[in-house]
Amino acid sequence: MSDFQTVQITRTVTVEDVPLELLSMIRESEKIMKEHIESSFQALYDDLDSNNLIAFLDDLQNFRVHLGKADIKLNDCHGIALGFVQMLTSTPEDKPAPQNQAASYQNAPDLEGLKKKMEQYVDNIKDMKLHLEEQDE
Fold first, then answer.
1. Helices then strands, each counted (H, E), the chain
2. 89-101, pLDDT tens digit by residue?
């Protein structure tokens, strides 16, 4: 199998859908891994048992390509999650300063509200995971 090329794409989703998108990406990576790990290792063992180093090198390269595809999904997931957390935790200090002192107090972060949002996102992710696991059964 030859090396694969990648291209970065941009999609827009609602803030509420970000955890679902992350879950979907993790599942795609998991699927790639599950489909190829056992069979790839078995092929590598078989190649070595038969002293076929040419086949071993070819199978090893194929395995690495599949691992790379899974890793690309995980890397994308990491970037999206990092950006999402930064968006949720950004404060007015992260933005240009307001013109007057009164405005800065009005724009103070609502930490309790932010905490509740984060907890709700975590609960939503857990619920989506359970729902998807039920569908898999």
1. 4, 0
2. 887 666 655 555 5
